[in-house]
Amino acid sequence: MASKRIYLSSPTMHGKEQEFVQEAFDTNWVAPLGPNVNEFEKEMAQYVGIAHASALSSGTAAIHLALRLLEVGEGDVIFTPSLTFSATCNPIIYENAVPVFIDSERDTWNMSPEALEKAFEKYPSPKAVIAVHLYGTPAKLDEITEICGRHGTVLIEDAAESLSSTYKGKQTGTFGKMGIYSFNGNKIITTSGGGMLVSEEEALIRKSRFLATQARDPARHYQHSQIGYNYRMSNVVAGIGRGQLLSLEGHKNRKKEIYAQYKEAFSDIPEISMNPLNADGDANCWLSCMLIAEGCGVTPDMVMDALESENIESRPIWKPMHLQPVFEGYDFITVQAEGSVAEDIFTRGLCLPSDIKNTSEDMERIIRIVRGLFR
Ligand SMILES: *Cc1c(COP(=O)(O)O)cnc(C)c1O
Fold first, then answer.
1. What is the tens place of the pLDDT at every residue in 224-247?
2. Residues with CB under 6 A from ligand 1
3. Ligand 1 midpoint to CA 238 (Å)
4. Which of 94, 89, 66, 63 has its CA nearest to residue 78?
5. Residue 128: which H helix or E strand, with range?
6. Kindly report the CA angle at 135 between 134 and 137, in degrees rounded to 5?
7. Rg of the chain on CA atoms, in Å
8. Between the CA of residue 189 and those of 36, 175, 331, what are the distances in Å?
C-alpha cells in the first residue's frame, strides 16, 4: 500500500512563522529571550484575554511552575483528573506532593463535579485543583469554579489541549488563578515545543520568569536564594509561535469541520458515538474521538488496526492515571458504584485522525474503513 501516511495531528506551517524566525536570525537574536518572546507573550495574553503570560519551554514546565508559585510541597494534596495525559500529574510528583485522581463525567469526559465534591469530603484542604479540558472540550467550569471557591481552593487550568476553546464566551485557561497552554508538536498550534503560563496576577507571572531563568537574585554576582530552572522559551521558538498564532482560528475551524464530518458520517451507526462537546462552550475539537458500544463485536483495537494497515495513524484514549503503574497507591475518587467513567471511556474509545491537512479524500477513506467494520 503506497498511499501517503495520514497523521493523527501533525504540525501545519503557513509561512509567517519563517518570517519571524528569519527576523531573529537577521538580528542575531537566537539566544533565549528577545523581542519575539516578548511579543509572543503579549499576543497570547491578548488572544486569550488575560493580563499576563510567560513563555516557557513546555506545557509541563508551565504546570510545574504553577505548583511552585503556589508553594506546593511535600505531602500537599492536589486534585487532578484521572483521564488525562501524564504531563498534568508528573509535576505534582516533582514537588513530592500527593495526587488524588478524580473520575470523569459523561457530559464532557472531564473532571466530574460530583466526584470533586466527594474528594473534598475525604481531603478537606487540598493545595490546588488542576482541571483539564480533554481533547479540547471545556470542563464544567461553572460547577468546578463554584466548588473550588466554596472550599477556598485554588484552581489551575491545564488548557494544553484546548487553546482557542471557549466556555460561555471566555477562553479556557483564563478561569483559574493560573492557566497553562502547550505548543508541543501535535497541539492545535505548535512551536516545535513550548508552553505558556497565564494569569491575571502580575506578581505570579513575574516570579514565573524569575524561577524559569535559574532564580537569580537581583545582585550583580550570581546569587541564589531559591532553586530555579532553565524553563524559558527561546527567541527562535517564539517566532514560530507568533506565526502560528495568526492561523489559530483557521486551525480551529478546520478541526471543527473534521469533527462535524465524522459525526455526520457515523450518525446512522448506533454503535458509534463521538466525544462530547460542552453545550456551554465552543470546543476547538483538537482530536475527534469515538466511543464504541460494548459487546457489538468491534473493539477500538480493531479500528486502530484497520486504519494502521492503510497507513493511517490513530491512537487510544489516554490511559487513566489511577490505572498507571507509576501512580499505583494514590487515591482515586469516583461516584460510580462500580468501575469508573474514566476507565469505561478508555476501554471503549479511540482518537481518530484529526490532522487539519487531511483532504476530503483522506476523510472519506478513513470513514469508509471505519464504517466497513460495523456492517
Ligand atoms: C500536551 C499536554 C501537556 C504537556 O505539554 P508539553 O508542552 O508537551 O509539556 C499537559 N497536559 C495535557 C493534557 C497535554 O495534552
1. 999 999 999 999 999 999 999 999
2. 58-60, 84-85, 87-88, 132, 158, 160-161, 182, 184, 195
3. 17
4. 89
5. strand 128-132
6. 70
7. 21
8. 16, 21, 34
